[in-house]
Amino acid sequence: MAAKNLLLLILLLFLTLNLVTAQLRRNFYAGSCPNVEQIVRNAVQQKIQQTFTTIPATLRLYFHDCFVNGCDASVMIASTDNNKAEKDHPDNLSLAGDGFDTVIKAKQALDAVANCRNKVSCADILTIATRDVVNLAGGPRYEVELGRRDGLSSTADSVEGKLPHPTDNVNQLTSLFAKNGLSLNDMITLSGAHTLGFAHCKLVFNRIYNFNNTTHVDPTVNKDYVVALKGSCPRNVDPSVAINMDPTTPRQFDNVYYQNLQQGKGLFTSDQDLFTDRRSKPLVALWASNAKLFNQAFVDSMIKLGRVGVKTGRSGNIRRDCGAFN
Length: 326
Known about the structure:
- The chain has 13 helices and two strands, in the order H-H-H-H-H-H-H-E-H-H-E-H-H-H-H.
- The protein is an all-alpha fold.
- The chain starts with a helix and ends in a 21-residue tail after the last helix.
């Protein structure tokens, strides 16, 4: 009976993903706003000129949106007196404001074009902008599927248990990604997004000062990297001080993240465990040695991520303001 129920669940997930794929398409706005991608890209480029943080902030915002109730821009919604929204859950408080601002600026640029005004969903704007920041940081440019509607719900409670944590191991990460229809290989590949961006010192204190009762320092961390981390994050430092996720090429989208893992330079436990776990180690080695293969795999996994929990038709709408329900 249990096996039968599992088979039905897998079949339902398969049918749902295929239905979403059929509803999303690359030329969705060809008749209503044909220049949507160029308009968004221009806005993204202008935002990057103001601050590099735009790139990692937008990429991280996309992941946090898609992993909670799907890629529906629900993470954009501001809290009200009557509703504490997703963005105010503790796991989302560290999302940089520049990611939100990127979507807002792109929305304003679209609304300035008469035939595009209120025609493009905030979910699709975030999807396009995410592709663009990856590409503008030196990563691959790929075609995005469009046609998402914006979600009609956003609650802080819905975030609980949905997002990866820095202390997660491969088992926990694999389970979390599987709930979104993403495989072990997808998880390893999408973790490569940590080639960009920064984290706060408080998230690594346990690895360099208070790992366990036997040793203060996580033994999987490269000794020279420990010295560097302690230099950037001394015990008495403001815990909100930022450090690069990738200590080697922090402003470049590349496969150096995986090379760092081979050297014991993964910032989080969730990063380094990809190399120490025998199930994920072979793919880490492959991505570390072949940038071209990694880039193609990243594109494939990002497209799969973009299909998670998509709202279409009456299950969503197109917001006039990305931060508020219509």
